[in-house]
Amino acid sequence: MQTASGRSRVLMAVTVLMLSLFLRPLDAQPAAAQTPPTEQAAMPQWQIAAGGRMKFETATIRKDVSGTFKKPSFALSADDGWSPADGNFHADFPLMVYIQFAYKLWLTPEETRPLFASLPKWVLSDTYEIQAQAAGKPSKDQMRLMMQTLLAERFGLKAHFESRQLSVYNLTPIKPGTMGTRLRPHTPSCEGGPAAKDSPATTQPAKGASTEDIFPPPCLDQALMTIPKPNHVKLTGTRNTTMALIATYLSSIGELDRPVVDETGLHGRVDFSLDFTPDSNLPVPTGVETETDSRVTTFKEALQEQLGLKLVSAKAALDVLVVNHVERPSEN
To answer: What is the pTM of this model?
Structure first.
């Protein structure tokens, strides 16, 4: 039986890291119930840029039954921030977390429901401590490639990407070429900080925009962060990122029922922050007018008022990860 602390650790890992997979059921099902065959997608661009297949020099895996959470050597998040300091990898999570880290993906809350139904229970319930070592000082994306190899060799993971037509939200500007007051072209946030990976955004910031409006604090480039504020308000943001990554992130943080695709036409690196009350925390209508201390801003209102963006329902072909096989690992 899993302890309360063990269940809490699994829940924390699943919630904080916003699991990011689209999985085919592992058990055989009738042909009528299966998704029609789709074209196999090419390798994601980030994997190509990181160098293709890579492998840890050494790696040990053991099932952790202690019930004590061990802090990872770096954040296994799907953003580009909180990079590893060296070639050491250490983490203590369920397999689901390692898969989402290895393939750098997010899913909306709605998309996680079929995911839980299609996976063996141990993928979520069993915690595995992994200690691995890589040569030199690999990037976070290179660590992901090494994790893909480790999962294939030790967990028998077989997976591929497929292109599927899905319902999405297109992220578009309210006024083409115009940013909101809390979305602006990236500028270095501190002396000696990470250099921009791309040219600065060419779109000009909105009138009244201020660097002080951007969260997180300076020097935390490429790290997507969310913190709670009073009255169930969330503050989220990042520096030195792309609109494509922001779109992917918004689908999860906004509790949306479908992925978000960047159609803003805004290029280069950007900074943004967003204050809003999640739909799950909005006041329940009672039919009686009451006075409140502050105005409640929904997620979609915040997009429009703070970022100058809106969501438009659409269909799009997206690459999704399909897992064909996974098994318990051999430990050493």
So the answer is: 0.75
